[in-house]
Amino acid sequence: MSLVTIGRLGRPHGLAGEMAIDRLALEPRELLALREFVWRGARGETRALTLAAARGRAPRALVRFEGIATREAAAALVNGMLLTERSRLPDPGAGMAWTFQLVGCEVRTEDGRVLGALADVLETGAHPVYVVRGEREWMLPAVESVVKRVDLEAGVVTVALIPGLEEI
Question: What pTM, to 2 d.p., does this model score?
Fold first, then answer.
Protein backbone atom coordinates (compact mmCIF):
# COMPACT_ATOMS: atom_id res chain seq x y z
CA MET A 1 0.00 0.00 0.00
CA SER A 2 1.49 3.34 -1.12
CA LEU A 3 0.25 6.13 1.14
CA VAL A 4 0.51 9.83 0.32
CA THR A 5 -0.06 12.81 2.58
CA ILE A 6 -3.31 14.70 2.03
CA GLY A 7 -2.81 17.28 4.77
CA ARG A 8 -1.95 17.95 8.41
CA LEU A 9 -4.71 18.02 11.01
CA GLY A 10 -4.73 21.27 12.95
CA ARG A 11 -6.54 22.44 16.05
CA PRO A 12 -10.15 21.60 16.91
CA HIS A 13 -12.84 23.99 15.69
CA GLY A 14 -15.85 24.29 17.95
CA LEU A 15 -17.10 21.66 20.37
CA ALA A 16 -18.46 18.86 18.12
CA GLY A 17 -15.23 17.25 16.86
CA GLU A 18 -14.66 19.41 13.79
CA MET A 19 -11.05 20.33 13.10
CA ALA A 20 -8.87 22.24 10.67
CA ILE A 21 -6.81 20.50 8.02
CA ASP A 22 -3.83 22.44 6.66
CA ARG A 23 -1.66 22.09 3.56
CA LEU A 24 -4.55 20.50 1.74
CA ALA A 25 -4.40 20.03 -2.04
CA LEU A 26 -7.91 18.55 -2.40
CA GLU A 27 -11.24 20.32 -2.26
CA PRO A 28 -13.84 19.15 0.29
CA ARG A 29 -15.91 17.35 -2.39
CA GLU A 30 -12.79 15.36 -3.37
CA LEU A 31 -12.12 14.50 0.29
CA LEU A 32 -15.70 13.30 0.65
CA ALA A 33 -15.31 11.11 -2.43
CA LEU A 34 -12.23 9.45 -0.90
CA ARG A 35 -13.92 9.13 2.53
CA GLU A 36 -11.44 6.58 4.02
CA PHE A 37 -8.11 7.82 5.41
CA VAL A 38 -5.22 6.80 7.62
CA TRP A 39 -4.10 9.12 10.40
CA ARG A 40 -0.41 9.00 11.37
CA GLY A 41 0.71 10.63 14.60
CA ALA A 42 4.09 12.18 15.38
CA ARG A 43 5.32 8.95 16.98
CA GLY A 44 4.30 6.84 13.98
CA GLU A 45 1.06 5.48 15.45
CA THR A 46 -1.76 5.02 12.93
CA ARG A 47 -5.53 4.94 12.98
CA ALA A 48 -8.21 4.47 10.31
CA LEU A 49 -10.55 7.46 9.93
CA THR A 50 -13.78 7.82 7.98
CA LEU A 51 -14.66 11.34 6.88
CA ALA A 52 -18.15 12.46 7.90
CA ALA A 53 -18.07 16.09 6.70
CA ALA A 54 -15.78 18.61 5.02
CA ARG A 55 -16.20 22.28 4.25
CA GLY A 56 -14.13 25.28 3.28
CA ARG A 57 -11.42 25.53 0.63
CA ALA A 58 -7.95 24.19 0.07
CA PRO A 59 -5.27 24.78 1.33
CA ARG A 60 -7.14 24.95 4.67
CA ALA A 61 -10.54 23.39 5.32
CA LEU A 62 -12.60 22.03 8.20
CA VAL A 63 -13.28 18.31 8.56
CA ARG A 64 -15.15 15.99 10.90
CA PHE A 65 -14.63 12.23 11.21
CA GLU A 66 -17.04 9.50 12.24
CA GLY A 67 -16.63 8.66 15.94
CA ILE A 68 -14.92 11.99 16.71
CA ALA A 69 -17.74 13.95 18.34
CA THR A 70 -16.04 16.15 20.93
CA ARG A 71 -13.34 18.80 21.02
CA GLU A 72 -11.25 16.51 23.22
CA ALA A 73 -11.46 13.60 20.77
CA ALA A 74 -10.42 15.92 17.92
CA ALA A 75 -7.53 17.30 20.00
CA ALA A 76 -6.02 13.80 20.16
CA LEU A 77 -5.53 13.96 16.36
CA VAL A 78 -3.85 17.41 16.24
CA ASN A 79 -0.62 17.58 14.22
CA GLY A 80 -1.21 14.13 12.76
CA MET A 81 -0.92 13.62 9.03
CA LEU A 82 -3.94 12.53 7.00
CA LEU A 83 -2.98 9.92 4.41
CA THR A 84 -4.66 7.97 1.62
CA GLU A 85 -3.64 5.39 -0.94
CA ARG A 86 -1.98 6.97 -3.96
CA SER A 87 -4.15 4.95 -6.36
CA ARG A 88 -7.36 6.43 -4.87
CA LEU A 89 -6.49 10.06 -5.70
CA PRO A 90 -8.38 11.72 -8.52
CA ASP A 91 -6.46 12.72 -11.65
CA PRO A 92 -5.17 16.29 -11.00
CA GLY A 93 -5.94 17.25 -14.61
CA ALA A 94 -3.98 17.90 -17.77
CA GLY A 95 -0.70 19.66 -17.13
CA MET A 96 -1.16 19.44 -13.34
CA ALA A 97 0.54 17.39 -10.61
CA TRP A 98 -0.03 16.68 -6.94
CA THR A 99 2.45 18.16 -4.46
CA PHE A 100 3.66 14.70 -3.42
CA GLN A 101 4.60 14.03 -7.06
CA LEU A 102 6.73 17.18 -7.23
CA VAL A 103 8.51 16.95 -3.89
CA GLY A 104 11.87 15.28 -4.39
CA CYS A 105 12.16 16.16 -8.08
CA GLU A 106 15.47 17.59 -9.23
CA VAL A 107 15.16 21.23 -10.29
CA ARG A 108 17.33 22.36 -13.20
CA THR A 109 17.67 25.54 -15.23
CA GLU A 110 17.05 25.43 -18.97
CA ASP A 111 20.82 25.29 -19.54
CA GLY A 112 21.11 22.17 -17.31
CA ARG A 113 22.40 23.73 -14.08
CA VAL A 114 21.11 21.75 -11.07
CA LEU A 115 19.61 24.04 -8.41
CA GLY A 116 18.68 21.25 -6.00
CA ALA A 117 15.67 19.18 -5.03
CA LEU A 118 12.13 20.47 -4.73
CA ALA A 119 11.60 20.28 -0.95
CA ASP A 120 8.17 21.83 -0.50
CA VAL A 121 5.36 23.69 -2.24
CA LEU A 122 4.03 26.73 -0.36
CA GLU A 123 0.53 27.96 -1.11
CA THR A 124 0.26 31.73 -1.31
CA GLY A 125 -2.61 34.00 -2.24
CA ALA A 126 -1.31 34.56 -5.76
CA HIS A 127 0.36 31.28 -6.80
CA PRO A 128 2.30 28.37 -5.32
CA VAL A 129 5.99 28.83 -4.52
CA TYR A 130 8.48 25.97 -4.98
CA VAL A 131 11.06 25.66 -2.20
CA VAL A 132 14.22 24.21 -3.75
CA ARG A 133 17.16 23.15 -1.60
CA GLY A 134 20.65 22.59 -2.97
CA GLU A 135 23.81 24.63 -2.43
CA ARG A 136 21.38 27.34 -1.37
CA GLU A 137 17.64 27.61 -0.88
CA TRP A 138 15.55 28.96 -3.75
CA MET A 139 11.99 30.27 -3.57
CA LEU A 140 10.65 29.93 -7.11
CA PRO A 141 7.19 31.18 -8.08
CA ALA A 142 5.30 28.35 -9.77
CA VAL A 143 4.22 30.46 -12.73
CA GLU A 144 4.45 29.78 -16.47
CA SER A 145 7.33 32.23 -16.98
CA VAL A 146 9.47 30.34 -14.42
CA VAL A 147 8.37 26.68 -14.56
CA LYS A 148 9.04 25.56 -18.13
CA ARG A 149 8.66 21.76 -17.96
CA VAL A 150 7.73 19.11 -15.43
CA ASP A 151 8.79 15.56 -16.28
CA LEU A 152 7.38 13.39 -13.49
CA GLU A 153 8.75 10.16 -15.04
CA ALA A 154 12.31 11.53 -15.04
CA GLY A 155 11.76 13.39 -11.76
CA VAL A 156 12.91 16.71 -13.22
CA VAL A 157 11.45 20.21 -13.10
CA THR A 158 13.02 22.65 -15.59
CA VAL A 159 12.91 26.34 -14.72
CA ALA A 160 13.94 29.69 -16.15
CA LEU A 161 15.39 32.04 -13.57
CA ILE A 162 13.87 35.47 -13.99
CA PRO A 163 16.18 38.50 -13.74
CA GLY A 164 17.05 39.38 -10.16
CA LEU A 165 16.03 35.99 -8.70
CA GLU A 166 19.61 34.87 -8.12
CA GLU A 167 20.33 37.97 -6.01
CA ILE A 168 17.57 37.23 -3.54
Answer: 0.67
